[in-house]
């Protein structure tokens, strides 16, 4: 599936600004970005729910720009399920098949067979006679996905599919969606604002901002090799440091750190971004790094967040350390320590 130079405006606002994207067959692709970045507008354009003003959308090499959602054979799953409350689970799943033109409509026995197979696939066996009001949020979302799969779509599109669910259910459904994708092999595109969800689920991630694509890559590529300062700040917890580039290096907390791609940079003012787990804390009698005071400690899971007050840095630095260092008493509030950065992503100052 290909998207070519799509443009879409709402008044004076460019929702999509010359967006091009190639989606590989069988790929699980995430559209990730802040509110207003254009990710849902792009998904709706691919579905045929919103017409672009310029550009082309192709399915299997054929122009589908002016085709309806039904003609494109696209399965769409909404955040709020959009189930028919007066219909049973069985009838909700069968709906897309029953409303086909008579010449394309499967026989009742085939519809029943397909629905029962999908109930098994989404782990809702025995619940076909229930109504949506009798299901949990996670179960309703499974029904919505089964309904989208029933029409045997060429592409499956999901708009914030787990956004209305609590954290525990979201995590369970992520693993389940990945398993469903593996079993069906469908080309799947999903919109999310949840970074963890995108990085955990997707084969590739598309980072969007202000109607444009900032970067496309595997989860590892966009996290470890962000192409722009925006991507770097958007993904993960980072601290910014002003520095000066010279011969492909910049000084951060007293340490000289290399620029990953020196060819992109010239000597001069720059900004370095350090992720919270890329700080190393040592005792105050060490010489490496910068002097700091521990202001707060917040244990969570296997790690501990440590807020550090570093002389000359306006804001507190948040470092993430293994819990065992905290539990043996090596880090305490009010303690004088030294902190250094073990890595950084450095960009030319704008």
Structure description:
Strand 17 and strand 18 (317-322) form a beta hairpin. By secondary structure, the protein is α+β, with helices and mostly antiparallel strands. It is 27% helix and 35% strand. The longest helix has 18 residues, at 167-184. It has helices at 39-47, 69-72, 89-98, 108-121, 137-150, 167-184, 195-201, 219-224, 229-234, 323-327; strands at residues 2-10, 13-22, 28-32, 54-59, 62-63, 74-77, 155-159, 187-192, 204-209, 212-217, 238-245, 249-252, 255-258, 268-275, 279-283, 290-300, 303-310, 317-322, 336-341, 345-348.
Structural class: alpha+beta
Low-pLDDT sequence parts: none
Beta-strand portion reads 35-45%
Order of SSEs: EEEHEEHEHHHEHEHEEHHEEEEEEEEHEE
* Physical arrangement of strands within the biggest beta sheet: 6-7-8-3-9-10
End-to-end gap: 36 Å
Largest sheet: 6 strands, mixed
Q: What level of helicity do the residues show?
A: 25-40%
């Amino acid at each position: 599936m290909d998207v070519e130079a799509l443009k879409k405006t709402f008044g004076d606002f460019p929702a999509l600004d010359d967006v091009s994207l190639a989606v590989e067959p069988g790929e699980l692709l995430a559209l990730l970005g802040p509110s207003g970045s254009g990710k849902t507008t792009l998904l709706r354009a691919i579905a045929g729910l919103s017409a672009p003003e310029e550009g082309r959308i192709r399915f299997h090499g054929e122009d589908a720009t002016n085709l309806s959602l039904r003609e494109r054979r696209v399965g769409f799953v909404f955040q709020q399920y959009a189930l028919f409350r007066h219909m049973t689970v069985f009838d909700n799943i069968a709906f897309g098949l029953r409303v086909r033109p008579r010449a394309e409509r499967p026989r009742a026995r085939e519809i029943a067979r397909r629905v029962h197979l999908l109930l098994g696939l989404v782990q809702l066996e025995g619940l076909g006679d229930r109504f949506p009001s009798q299901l949990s949020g996670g179960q309703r979302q499974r029904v919505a996905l089964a309904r989208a799969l029933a029409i045997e779509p060429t592409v499956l599109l999901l708009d914030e599919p787990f956004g209305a669910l609590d954290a525990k259910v979201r995590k369970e459904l992520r693993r389940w969606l990945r398993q469903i994708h593996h079993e069906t092999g469908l080309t799947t595109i999903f919109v999310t604002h949840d970074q963890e969800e995108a990085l955990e689920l997707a084969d590739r991630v598309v980072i969007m901002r202000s109607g444009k694509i900032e970067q496309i890559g595997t989860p590892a590529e966009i996290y470890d090799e962000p192409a722009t300062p925006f991507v770097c700040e958007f993904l993960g917890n980072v601290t910014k440091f002003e520095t000066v580039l010279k011969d492909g290096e910049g000084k951060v907390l007293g340490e000289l750190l290399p620029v990953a791609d020196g060819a992109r940079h010239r000597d001069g003012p720059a900004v370095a971004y350090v992720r919270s787990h890329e700080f190393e804390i040592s005792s105050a009698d060490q010489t490496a790094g910068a002097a700091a005071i521990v202001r707060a400690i917040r244990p969570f899971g296997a790690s501990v967040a440590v807020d550090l007050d570093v002389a000359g840095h306006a804001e507190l630095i948040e470092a993430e350390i293994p819990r065992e260092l905290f539990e043996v008493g090596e880090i305490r509030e009010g303690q004088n320590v030294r902190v250094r950065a073990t890595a950084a992503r450095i960009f030319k100052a704008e």
